[in-house]
Amino acid sequence: MKVLVVGSGGREHALCASLRRSPLLTTLFCAPGSGGIAGVAQCVAIGVDDLEGMCRFATAEEIDLVVVGPERPLVEGLVDRLEAAGVRAFGPRAAAARLEGSKAFMKSFARRHGIPTAACRVFDAARRHEAEAHVRNHPLPVVVKADGLAAGKGVVVAEDTASALAALDAAFEGRLGDAGACVVVEEFLEGEEASLFALCDGIHAIGIGTAQDHKRAFDGDRGPNTGGMGAYSPAPILGGAMTERVMREIVRPTLAGMAAEGTPFSGFLYAGLMIGADGPRLVEFNVRFGDPECQTVLPRLKSDLLGLLTAATRGVLDTQEVAFADDHALTVVAATRGYPGAYEKGSVVGGLPDVLDDPDVMIFHAGTRRDGDLWRAEGGRVFAVTGLGGSLAVARAKAYAALARICWPEGYYRSDIGWRALRRT
Ligand code: AMP
Ligand code: GLY
Predict the structure, then answer these.
(1) pLDDT, tens digit, for every residue of 308-360?
(2) Ligand 1 centre from 134 Cα, in Å?
(3) Which of 5, 220, 303, 399 is deepest in the core (most CB within 10 A)?
């Protein structure tokens, strides 16, 4: 099969590395890809926002399957366009991608279908005064969310009323662009956060792993929110019984509800959960794999990823089984100093290739550029190191040992990835 992966991050590097192992694969393209991805796929210079260009390339190359990594092209309808051009694509159509593209849609959908989630109210700019009055009367903390895609900047967990009002101002004064035209004000959920990933074909959903992310930039879960600074899999809080409960109470009702509303969901469904005293509640849906969760989940996958994704596009996931290695995986993200704020580009990351002599260590590039024999850092999150092991402690030791061999004074990483899970053992 000829496969095209859309995207350029660490997630897409991990997708490409897994697809590469498939006996079904003949040629692997990635658009636009990256210096690191060029080691496993042929990179094609088409931007993720160039939907027309992606369709042209997929048609001209007679691609058998397009796998879309990031959310924006999904929300903007890349899969719809590919299908209209006769190209098979893995990922939701635009109408189903609204589960991530509009938090207001997600919340009203959850209410219609009895899916447990935080109580909320939705306001647009015309009802700004009502929103302000609601926030003033709301118990604290209160969560204020921009409706649309805001690249991780749209959610404020406000400990005091002033911060909640400031979040409303940011949204209604256009500082989040179109994403803030409407806001969701919701109840704060207590519990432990974890994520479950389901592979969906419009009717059936099968679990494809669990993970816990670390969103804050610095050790001790301090500092600004980021796209994710590290993750591990499996998530101990999502054991067999709890996973089954999430599938029964959240994932399967979502698949059934989306199909009943005429917008069946196929693709990766990322359920961001809060596991509280009264069970799991849905915090958010993403309509794609997580980054860096993909880099921590896929290295444990024993099944053929390409076979699974193809089955998903054919609506026959009920014939498939997903097998995992018993291993644990732990991924640490290395970022340029300054991220998630402003940072310099172009610093040299020394020692990157040298750590690949250990089969239990994998490196996924996110923002690197090849410059002769050197790797240069070109992004915020630059690469991720995944360690595998028979226990989480071993996986963690492998990842940190590999990082210690990389010389990059301009970069930083958290030294406490996995602390929550290790505290349990
Ligand atoms: P979201 O993009 O909706 O996942 O929100 C980003 C992060 O904000 C989540 O991963 C949680 O850590 C936090 N968060 C969002 N909604 C809530 C909530 N209702 N209660 C507690 N924390 C929340
Ligand atoms: N790591 C969080 C996300 O991919 O949304």
Answers:
(1) 999 999 999 999 999 998 799 999 999 999 999 999 999 999 988 655 678 89
(2) 19
(3) 399
As assigned by CATH, the class of the 2-86 domain is: alpha beta
Residues 283-292: tens digit of each pLDDT: 999 999 999 9
**Ligand lying nearest the CA atom of residue 290:** 2
Return the residue whose CA atom lies nearest to atom 16 of ligand 1: 283
Long-range contacts of 239-245 (CB under 8 A, 24+ apart): 242/275, 242/280, 243/196, 243/207, 243/210, 245/279, 245/280
Ligand 1 pocket, mutate which of 71, 147, 155 (most atoms under 8 A from CB): 155
Distance 277 CA to ligand 1 centre (A): 17
How many Å apart are CA 415 and CA 137, to the nearest integer? Answer: 40
Location of structure tokens 């900047």: 153
- For tokens 């210096």, the residue is 35
Asked whether the predicted pLDDT for residue 65 surpasses 60, the reply is: yes
192 lines ligand 1 (CB under 6 A): no
Least Cα distance to 348 among 368, 370, 377, 369 occurs for 377
pLDDT computed for residue 425 by the predictor: 63
Options 3.40.50.720, 3.90.600.10, 3.40.50.2300, 3.30.160.60; CATH of 328-424:
3.90.600.10
Give the CATH number of domain 119-187; options: 3.40.50.920, 3.10.450.50, 3.40.190.120, 3.30.1490.20: 3.30.1490.20
Quick check: CB of 272 below 6 Å from ligand 1? yes
Which CATH number applies to 192-319? 3.30.470.20
Distance, CA 283 to ligand 1 centroid (Å)?
6
